[in-house]
Amino acid sequence: MVKRYLKKQIDVDAGLEVGSSSPQVVAVVSSVIQDIRTNQDAAVRKYSEKFDKWSPASFKLSEAEINAAIAACPAQTIRDIEQVQRNVAKFAKCQRASLTDFEIETEPGVLLGQKNVPINSVGCYIPGGRYPLLASAHMTILTAKIAGVPNVIGCTPPIEGKIPNATVAAMHMAGADQIFVLGGVQAVAAMAVGTETIDKVDFLAGPGNAFVAEAKRQLYGQVGIDLFAGPTEVLIVADDSARPLTVATDLISQAEHGPDTPAVLITTSERVAKESMAKVEELLAGGLSTAAVASVAWRDWGTVVVVDDLDEAYTLADEYASEHVQILTKRPREALDKMRNYGALFLGERTCVSYGDKVIGTNHVLPTRKASRYTGGLWVGKYLRTVTYQEVVRDEASGQLGRLCGRAARAENFEGHARSGDLRANLFLKDSFDWIK
Fold it and tell me: What residues does Zn(2+) bind to (predicted)?
Protein backbone atom coordinates (compact mmCIF):
# COMPACT_ATOMS: atom_id res chain seq x y z
CA MET A 1 0.00 0.00 0.00
CA VAL A 2 1.33 3.43 -0.97
CA LYS A 3 0.51 6.04 1.69
CA ARG A 4 1.36 9.73 1.36
CA TYR A 5 1.03 11.57 4.65
CA LEU A 6 0.27 15.23 4.13
CA LYS A 7 -0.12 15.58 7.91
CA LYS A 8 0.80 13.12 10.63
CA GLN A 9 -0.24 12.93 14.27
CA ILE A 10 2.54 13.15 16.83
CA ASP A 11 2.72 9.42 17.55
CA VAL A 12 0.84 7.74 14.73
CA ASP A 13 3.20 4.77 14.82
CA ALA A 14 3.48 4.44 18.59
CA GLY A 15 0.16 2.71 19.20
CA LEU A 16 -1.91 3.14 22.34
CA GLU A 17 -2.71 0.32 24.69
CA VAL A 18 -6.39 -0.08 25.42
CA GLY A 19 -7.15 0.82 29.02
CA SER A 20 -3.71 2.31 29.70
CA SER A 21 -3.17 5.38 31.88
CA SER A 22 -0.23 7.45 32.99
CA PRO A 23 1.47 6.38 36.25
CA GLN A 24 0.31 9.61 37.90
CA VAL A 25 -3.33 8.96 37.03
CA VAL A 26 -3.05 5.34 38.19
CA ALA A 27 -1.60 6.39 41.54
CA VAL A 28 -4.16 9.13 42.21
CA VAL A 29 -7.10 6.90 41.31
CA SER A 30 -5.82 3.99 43.38
CA SER A 31 -5.44 6.25 46.41
CA VAL A 32 -8.94 7.70 46.07
CA ILE A 33 -10.57 4.30 45.64
CA GLN A 34 -8.82 2.89 48.69
CA ASP A 35 -9.79 5.90 50.80
CA ILE A 36 -13.43 5.53 49.77
CA ARG A 37 -13.35 1.80 50.55
CA THR A 38 -12.14 2.63 54.05
CA ASN A 39 -13.87 5.90 54.89
CA GLN A 40 -16.91 5.78 52.59
CA ASP A 41 -19.07 8.93 52.66
CA ALA A 42 -16.46 10.98 54.52
CA ALA A 43 -13.92 10.28 51.78
CA VAL A 44 -16.47 10.96 49.04
CA ARG A 45 -17.20 14.36 50.53
CA LYS A 46 -13.49 15.14 50.96
CA TYR A 47 -12.73 14.52 47.30
CA SER A 48 -15.85 16.30 46.09
CA GLU A 49 -14.75 19.37 48.05
CA LYS A 50 -11.18 19.03 46.77
CA PHE A 51 -11.88 18.42 43.07
CA ASP A 52 -15.26 20.06 42.49
CA LYS A 53 -15.60 22.55 45.36
CA TRP A 54 -18.96 20.90 46.00
CA SER A 55 -20.26 19.80 49.41
CA PRO A 56 -24.07 20.00 49.72
CA ALA A 57 -25.96 18.56 52.66
CA SER A 58 -26.83 15.59 50.44
CA PHE A 59 -25.32 14.62 47.09
CA LYS A 60 -28.53 12.78 46.26
CA LEU A 61 -31.17 15.02 44.70
CA SER A 62 -34.61 15.05 46.27
CA GLU A 63 -37.76 14.89 44.19
CA ALA A 64 -38.24 18.61 44.79
CA GLU A 65 -34.72 19.40 43.59
CA ILE A 66 -35.21 17.29 40.47
CA ASN A 67 -38.50 19.03 39.70
CA ALA A 68 -36.85 22.41 40.23
CA ALA A 69 -34.04 21.49 37.83
CA ILE A 70 -36.54 20.47 35.17
CA ALA A 71 -38.56 23.64 35.70
CA ALA A 72 -35.39 25.72 35.26
CA CYS A 73 -34.80 24.32 31.77
CA PRO A 74 -36.16 26.11 28.69
CA ALA A 75 -39.26 24.43 27.30
CA GLN A 76 -37.49 23.78 24.00
CA THR A 77 -34.71 21.93 25.83
CA ILE A 78 -37.26 19.62 27.43
CA ARG A 79 -38.96 19.01 24.08
CA ASP A 80 -35.60 18.23 22.49
CA ILE A 81 -34.71 15.79 25.26
CA GLU A 82 -38.04 14.06 24.74
CA GLN A 83 -37.44 13.77 20.98
CA VAL A 84 -33.90 12.43 21.35
CA GLN A 85 -34.99 9.95 23.99
CA ARG A 86 -37.75 8.71 21.69
CA ASN A 87 -35.09 8.09 19.03
CA VAL A 88 -32.79 6.29 21.45
CA ALA A 89 -35.64 4.26 22.92
CA LYS A 90 -36.90 3.15 19.52
CA PHE A 91 -33.50 1.76 18.51
CA ALA A 92 -32.82 0.22 21.94
CA LYS A 93 -36.19 -1.53 21.94
CA CYS A 94 -35.39 -3.11 18.58
CA GLN A 95 -32.07 -4.28 19.98
CA ARG A 96 -33.84 -5.83 22.96
CA ALA A 97 -36.35 -7.55 20.71
CA SER A 98 -33.50 -9.15 18.78
CA LEU A 99 -32.35 -10.97 21.93
CA THR A 100 -34.73 -13.87 22.33
CA ASP A 101 -35.01 -16.54 25.00
CA PHE A 102 -35.26 -20.08 23.71
CA GLU A 103 -35.54 -23.70 24.80
CA ILE A 104 -34.62 -26.70 22.67
CA GLU A 105 -34.75 -30.47 23.08
CA THR A 106 -31.29 -31.63 21.99
CA GLU A 107 -32.05 -35.31 22.60
CA PRO A 108 -35.32 -36.97 23.64
CA GLY A 109 -35.91 -35.77 27.18
CA VAL A 110 -32.95 -33.34 27.34
CA LEU A 111 -34.05 -29.69 27.52
CA LEU A 112 -31.56 -26.81 27.19
CA GLY A 113 -32.55 -23.17 27.42
CA GLN A 114 -31.26 -19.63 27.37
CA LYS A 115 -32.60 -16.54 29.12
CA ASN A 116 -31.52 -12.91 28.96
CA VAL A 117 -31.74 -11.54 32.49
CA PRO A 118 -31.16 -7.85 33.30
CA ILE A 119 -28.37 -6.83 35.65
CA ASN A 120 -29.83 -5.96 39.05
CA SER A 121 -28.18 -2.57 39.61
CA VAL A 122 -26.30 -0.21 37.30
CA GLY A 123 -24.39 2.99 37.95
CA CYS A 124 -24.26 5.49 35.09
CA TYR A 125 -21.73 8.30 34.99
CA ILE A 126 -22.77 11.39 33.03
CA PRO A 127 -19.77 13.68 32.45
CA GLY A 128 -19.75 17.42 33.08
CA GLY A 129 -16.52 19.35 33.19
CA ARG A 130 -15.75 21.09 29.89
CA TYR A 131 -19.13 20.11 28.44
CA PRO A 132 -22.31 18.89 30.17
CA LEU A 133 -22.89 15.70 28.18
CA LEU A 134 -26.58 15.32 28.88
CA ALA A 135 -26.81 13.04 25.82
CA SER A 136 -24.92 10.44 27.86
CA ALA A 137 -27.99 10.18 30.08
CA HIS A 138 -30.00 8.93 27.12
CA MET A 139 -27.30 6.49 26.07
CA THR A 140 -26.61 4.95 29.48
CA ILE A 141 -29.65 5.33 31.74
CA LEU A 142 -32.43 5.01 29.17
CA THR A 143 -30.78 2.01 27.50
CA ALA A 144 -30.40 0.31 30.88
CA LYS A 145 -34.08 0.84 31.71
CA ILE A 146 -35.16 -0.54 28.33
CA ALA A 147 -33.01 -3.59 29.04
CA GLY A 148 -35.09 -4.02 32.20
CA VAL A 149 -32.54 -3.01 34.86
CA PRO A 150 -34.64 -2.41 38.00
CA ASN A 151 -32.26 -0.01 39.76
CA VAL A 152 -30.25 2.64 37.91
CA ILE A 153 -28.18 5.22 39.77
CA GLY A 154 -26.98 8.29 37.87
CA CYS A 155 -24.07 10.51 38.90
CA THR A 156 -23.06 13.79 37.28
CA PRO A 157 -20.70 16.49 38.53
CA PRO A 158 -21.73 20.03 39.41
CA ILE A 159 -20.84 22.73 36.91
CA GLU A 160 -19.23 25.80 38.44
CA GLY A 161 -20.70 24.93 41.81
CA LYS A 162 -24.26 24.52 40.56
CA ILE A 163 -26.67 21.70 39.75
CA PRO A 164 -26.57 21.08 35.98
CA ASN A 165 -30.28 21.45 35.32
CA ALA A 166 -30.48 20.11 31.76
CA THR A 167 -28.39 17.05 32.62
CA VAL A 168 -30.52 16.31 35.66
CA ALA A 169 -33.66 16.68 33.55
CA ALA A 170 -32.29 14.22 31.00
CA MET A 171 -31.31 11.74 33.73
CA HIS A 172 -34.75 11.89 35.33
CA MET A 173 -36.60 11.65 32.03
CA ALA A 174 -34.40 8.67 31.07
CA GLY A 175 -35.66 6.83 34.15
CA ALA A 176 -32.88 7.12 36.75
CA ASP A 177 -34.06 5.76 40.09
CA GLN A 178 -31.59 7.87 42.06
CA ILE A 179 -29.66 10.95 40.94
CA PHE A 180 -26.52 12.23 42.64
CA VAL A 181 -24.72 15.45 41.82
CA LEU A 182 -21.28 13.97 42.32
CA GLY A 183 -18.39 13.77 39.90
CA GLY A 184 -15.08 12.14 39.10
CA VAL A 185 -13.38 9.15 40.67
CA GLN A 186 -15.32 9.70 43.90
CA ALA A 187 -18.62 9.12 42.09
CA VAL A 188 -17.49 6.02 40.21
CA ALA A 189 -15.78 4.51 43.25
CA ALA A 190 -18.74 5.22 45.54
CA MET A 191 -21.12 3.43 43.19
CA ALA A 192 -18.75 0.49 42.80
CA VAL A 193 -17.91 -0.12 46.47
CA GLY A 194 -21.01 1.34 48.14
CA THR A 195 -21.12 3.83 51.00
CA GLU A 196 -23.53 4.72 53.81
CA THR A 197 -25.68 6.76 51.40
CA ILE A 198 -24.81 5.41 47.92
CA ASP A 199 -25.89 1.89 47.05
CA LYS A 200 -23.36 -0.51 45.58
CA VAL A 201 -24.00 -1.34 41.92
CA ASP A 202 -23.12 -4.39 39.85
CA PHE A 203 -22.14 -2.57 36.65
CA LEU A 204 -20.71 0.82 35.66
CA ALA A 205 -21.44 2.59 32.38
CA GLY A 206 -20.70 5.92 30.80
CA PRO A 207 -17.81 7.99 29.46
CA GLY A 208 -15.51 10.26 31.45
CA ASN A 209 -12.08 11.82 31.65
CA ALA A 210 -8.80 9.95 32.13
CA PHE A 211 -9.37 9.63 35.88
CA VAL A 212 -12.88 8.22 35.48
CA ALA A 213 -11.65 5.78 32.82
CA GLU A 214 -8.81 4.63 35.08
CA ALA A 215 -11.20 4.22 38.01
CA LYS A 216 -13.38 1.93 35.90
CA ARG A 217 -10.31 -0.04 34.87
CA GLN A 218 -9.20 -0.53 38.48
CA LEU A 219 -12.71 -1.44 39.65
CA TYR A 220 -13.34 -3.91 36.81
CA GLY A 221 -13.85 -7.34 38.27
CA GLN A 222 -15.47 -6.05 41.43
CA VAL A 223 -18.10 -4.64 39.09
CA GLY A 224 -18.70 -5.00 35.40
CA ILE A 225 -18.03 -2.09 33.04
CA ASP A 226 -19.28 -1.15 29.61
CA LEU A 227 -15.83 -0.76 28.03
CA PHE A 228 -12.40 0.82 28.42
CA ALA A 229 -12.53 4.25 26.83
CA GLY A 230 -9.96 6.79 25.73
CA PRO A 231 -10.24 10.14 23.95
CA THR A 232 -12.88 10.52 21.24
CA GLU A 233 -11.70 9.51 17.75
CA VAL A 234 -12.91 10.35 14.25
CA LEU A 235 -11.78 8.98 10.90
CA ILE A 236 -13.15 10.08 7.55
CA VAL A 237 -12.79 8.06 4.34
CA ALA A 238 -13.30 10.34 1.32
CA ASP A 239 -13.02 10.11 -2.45
CA ASP A 240 -12.86 12.95 -5.00
CA SER A 241 -16.61 13.61 -4.61
CA ALA A 242 -16.26 14.78 -0.99
CA ARG A 243 -16.74 18.45 -0.21
CA PRO A 244 -13.70 19.85 1.63
CA LEU A 245 -15.97 22.07 3.74
CA THR A 246 -17.90 18.99 4.93
CA VAL A 247 -14.71 17.09 5.65
CA ALA A 248 -13.20 19.98 7.61
CA THR A 249 -16.38 20.74 9.54
CA ASP A 250 -16.83 17.15 10.59
CA LEU A 251 -13.19 16.68 11.62
CA ILE A 252 -13.40 19.78 13.82
CA SER A 253 -16.74 18.68 15.28
CA GLN A 254 -14.93 15.82 17.00
CA ALA A 255 -11.60 17.58 17.62
CA GLU A 256 -13.38 19.96 19.96
CA HIS A 257 -13.97 17.07 22.40
CA GLY A 258 -10.47 17.41 23.78
CA PRO A 259 -6.85 18.31 23.03
CA ASP A 260 -5.91 14.63 22.58
CA THR A 261 -8.63 13.71 20.07
CA PRO A 262 -7.31 11.95 16.95
CA ALA A 263 -8.89 13.32 13.76
CA VAL A 264 -7.93 11.38 10.64
CA LEU A 265 -8.68 11.86 6.95
CA ILE A 266 -7.94 9.05 4.49
CA THR A 267 -8.67 10.03 0.90
CA THR A 268 -8.00 8.98 -2.66
CA SER A 269 -7.87 12.65 -3.75
CA GLU A 270 -4.88 14.90 -3.06
CA ARG A 271 -7.05 17.88 -3.99
CA VAL A 272 -9.65 16.97 -1.36
CA ALA A 273 -6.88 16.42 1.18
CA LYS A 274 -5.21 19.79 0.62
CA GLU A 275 -8.43 21.78 0.37
CA SER A 276 -9.80 20.09 3.50
CA MET A 277 -6.65 20.94 5.45
CA ALA A 278 -6.92 24.55 4.34
CA LYS A 279 -10.59 24.65 5.36
CA VAL A 280 -9.75 23.26 8.79
CA GLU A 281 -7.29 26.10 9.39
CA GLU A 282 -9.78 28.64 8.06
CA LEU A 283 -12.58 27.39 10.32
CA LEU A 284 -10.35 27.22 13.39
CA ALA A 285 -9.31 30.83 12.81
CA GLY A 286 -12.86 31.98 12.11
CA GLY A 287 -14.25 32.49 15.59
CA LEU A 288 -15.17 28.92 16.61
CA SER A 289 -15.89 29.06 20.33
CA THR A 290 -14.07 25.78 20.95
CA ALA A 291 -11.10 26.60 18.71
CA ALA A 292 -8.62 26.63 21.59
CA VAL A 293 -9.26 22.94 22.24
CA ALA A 294 -9.88 21.84 18.66
CA SER A 295 -6.73 23.58 17.39
CA VAL A 296 -4.51 21.65 19.79
CA ALA A 297 -6.16 18.37 18.83
CA TRP A 298 -5.72 19.10 15.13
CA ARG A 299 -2.14 20.29 15.56
CA ASP A 300 -1.01 17.27 17.56
CA TRP A 301 -3.36 14.51 16.51
CA GLY A 302 -4.62 15.46 13.06
CA THR A 303 -3.65 13.10 10.26
CA VAL A 304 -4.21 13.34 6.50
CA VAL A 305 -3.30 10.40 4.27
CA VAL A 306 -3.62 10.05 0.49
CA VAL A 307 -3.93 6.51 -0.89
CA ASP A 308 -4.31 5.16 -4.41
CA ASP A 309 -7.84 3.74 -4.26
CA LEU A 310 -10.77 3.13 -1.95
CA ASP A 311 -9.84 -0.47 -1.25
CA GLU A 312 -6.57 0.82 0.21
CA ALA A 313 -8.50 3.48 2.10
CA TYR A 314 -10.77 0.91 3.72
CA THR A 315 -7.84 -1.37 4.55
CA LEU A 316 -5.98 1.48 6.22
CA ALA A 317 -9.11 2.61 8.05
CA ASP A 318 -9.47 -0.92 9.44
CA GLU A 319 -5.93 -0.66 10.78
CA TYR A 320 -6.86 2.49 12.67
CA ALA A 321 -10.02 0.76 14.02
CA SER A 322 -11.41 4.16 14.94
CA GLU A 323 -14.31 4.90 17.25
CA HIS A 324 -16.23 6.92 14.62
CA VAL A 325 -15.76 6.27 10.90
CA GLN A 326 -17.48 8.58 8.45
CA ILE A 327 -17.74 7.63 4.76
CA LEU A 328 -17.86 10.54 2.29
CA THR A 329 -17.76 8.74 -1.05
CA LYS A 330 -19.96 8.28 -4.11
CA ARG A 331 -21.14 4.87 -2.82
CA PRO A 332 -20.87 5.03 0.97
CA ARG A 333 -22.70 1.75 1.65
CA GLU A 334 -19.74 -0.11 0.15
CA ALA A 335 -18.08 0.38 3.51
CA LEU A 336 -20.55 -2.03 5.10
CA ASP A 337 -18.92 -4.82 3.10
CA LYS A 338 -15.40 -3.45 2.89
CA MET A 339 -14.80 -2.55 6.54
CA ARG A 340 -14.80 -4.53 9.77
CA ASN A 341 -13.13 -2.49 12.53
CA TYR A 342 -15.04 0.55 13.80
CA GLY A 343 -17.14 1.61 16.75
CA ALA A 344 -19.84 3.15 14.57
CA LEU A 345 -20.13 3.81 10.85
CA PHE A 346 -21.67 6.99 9.41
CA LEU A 347 -22.61 6.65 5.76
CA GLY A 348 -22.74 9.61 3.39
CA GLU A 349 -22.77 13.37 3.64
CA ARG A 350 -26.32 13.41 5.01
CA THR A 351 -25.07 11.54 8.09
CA CYS A 352 -22.53 13.06 10.47
CA VAL A 353 -20.85 11.78 13.62
CA SER A 354 -22.50 14.55 15.62
CA TYR A 355 -25.87 12.93 14.90
CA GLY A 356 -24.64 9.77 16.60
CA ASP A 357 -23.21 11.77 19.48
CA LYS A 358 -26.37 13.69 20.18
CA VAL A 359 -29.65 12.82 18.49
CA ILE A 360 -30.04 9.99 15.98
CA GLY A 361 -30.72 7.13 18.40
CA THR A 362 -27.69 4.83 18.24
CA ASN A 363 -25.40 4.75 21.26
CA HIS A 364 -22.45 7.12 21.54
CA VAL A 365 -20.51 5.13 24.17
CA LEU A 366 -18.10 3.43 21.78
CA PRO A 367 -14.73 1.62 21.78
CA THR A 368 -11.55 3.68 21.30
CA ARG A 369 -7.82 2.94 20.99
CA LYS A 370 -8.37 0.09 18.53
CA ALA A 371 -10.73 -1.78 20.88
CA SER A 372 -13.24 -2.02 18.01
CA ARG A 373 -11.14 -4.96 16.79
CA TYR A 374 -12.81 -7.07 19.47
CA THR A 375 -15.83 -5.24 20.89
CA GLY A 376 -18.71 -3.01 19.96
CA GLY A 377 -20.12 -0.12 21.94
CA LEU A 378 -22.67 0.16 24.71
CA TRP A 379 -26.05 -1.34 23.86
CA VAL A 380 -29.01 -3.04 25.50
CA GLY A 381 -27.18 -6.37 25.49
CA LYS A 382 -24.45 -5.01 27.79
CA TYR A 383 -27.06 -4.69 30.53
CA LEU A 384 -28.25 -8.28 30.15
CA ARG A 385 -26.73 -11.49 31.45
CA THR A 386 -27.25 -14.34 29.03
CA VAL A 387 -27.78 -17.35 31.30
CA THR A 388 -28.51 -20.96 30.50
CA TYR A 389 -30.53 -23.71 32.14
CA GLN A 390 -30.92 -27.42 31.58
CA GLU A 391 -33.38 -30.12 32.55
CA VAL A 392 -33.41 -33.85 31.82
CA VAL A 393 -36.96 -35.14 31.95
CA ARG A 394 -36.56 -38.80 30.84
CA ASP A 395 -34.93 -41.64 32.78
CA GLU A 396 -33.28 -43.13 29.69
CA ALA A 397 -31.77 -39.79 28.69
CA SER A 398 -30.36 -39.13 32.18
CA GLY A 399 -28.89 -42.64 32.39
CA GLN A 400 -27.19 -42.38 29.00
CA LEU A 401 -25.77 -38.97 29.90
CA GLY A 402 -24.56 -40.50 33.17
CA ARG A 403 -22.61 -43.20 31.34
CA LEU A 404 -21.10 -40.59 29.00
CA CYS A 405 -20.26 -38.29 31.92
CA GLY A 406 -18.55 -41.12 33.79
CA ARG A 407 -16.29 -41.94 30.84
CA ALA A 408 -15.57 -38.29 29.99
CA ALA A 409 -14.79 -37.30 33.57
CA ARG A 410 -12.46 -40.24 34.20
CA ALA A 411 -10.53 -39.34 31.05
CA GLU A 412 -9.73 -36.11 32.89
CA ASN A 413 -9.15 -37.82 36.27
CA PHE A 414 -12.24 -36.15 37.82
CA GLU A 415 -13.56 -39.08 39.86
CA GLY A 416 -16.12 -37.00 41.74
CA HIS A 417 -17.64 -35.77 38.51
CA ALA A 418 -17.67 -39.32 37.18
CA ARG A 419 -19.57 -40.57 40.21
CA SER A 420 -22.32 -37.98 39.71
CA GLY A 421 -22.80 -39.53 36.28
CA ASP A 422 -22.52 -43.08 37.63
CA LEU A 423 -25.31 -42.37 40.12
CA ARG A 424 -27.75 -41.42 37.34
CA ALA A 425 -26.75 -44.46 35.31
CA ASN A 426 -27.45 -46.55 38.42
CA LEU A 427 -30.75 -44.87 39.27
CA PHE A 428 -32.25 -44.85 35.81
CA LEU A 429 -30.50 -47.68 33.87
CA LYS A 430 -29.72 -49.99 36.82
CA ASP A 431 -25.97 -49.98 36.11
CA SER A 432 -23.90 -51.25 39.06
CA PHE A 433 -20.75 -49.62 40.44
CA ASP A 434 -18.37 -50.76 43.16
CA TRP A 435 -18.60 -47.44 44.95
CA ILE A 436 -22.43 -47.55 45.22
CA LYS A 437 -23.35 -49.87 48.09
Answer: 254, 257, 357, 417
Tell me which amino acid residue 52 is: D
Residue 319's alpha-carbon distances to 13, 341, 347, in angstroms, are: 11, 8, 19
- The reply to whether domains 23-226+381-385 and 231-376 share a CATH topology is yes
Q: 324 catalytic, yes or no? A: yes
**Which residues are known binding-site members for substrate?**
232, 254, 257, 324, 357, 412, 417
Catalytic residue of the set 323, 349, 364, 415: 323
- Known binding-site residues for Zn(2+) equal 254, 257, 357, 417
The pLDDT of residue 301 is above 90: yes
Nearest C-alpha neighbor of 388 from the set 60, 72, 117: 117
Q: Determine contact, residues 377/386, Cβ cutoff 8 Å.
A: no
Q: What percent of the chain has pLDDT over 90?
A: 92
Percentage of the chain lying above the pLDDT 70 cut? 97
Mean pLDDT of 171-188: 98
Q: Is the domain covering 231-376 a CATH 3.40.50.1980 domain?
A: yes
25, pLDDT greater than 70: yes
Segment 372-385, tens digit of pLDDT:
999 999 999 999 99
- Considering the candidates 214, 324, 349, 364, report the single residue annotated as catalytic: 324
> Which residues fall in the annotated binding site?
125, 186, 209, 232, 254, 257, 324, 357, 412, 417
Look at residue 395 in the predicted model and tell me its pLDDT: 97
CATH class in words for 23-226+381-385: alpha beta
For the chain, the domains span 23-226+381-385, 231-376, 395-437
CB-CB contact of 192 with 204 (8 Å): yes
Q: Which residues carry a binding-site annotation for NAD(+)?
A: 125, 186, 209
Instruction: Give the sheet arrangement for strand 151-156, strand by strand.
Output: 178-181, 151-156, 121-125, 203-205, 224-225
- Is 364 a residue of the active site? no
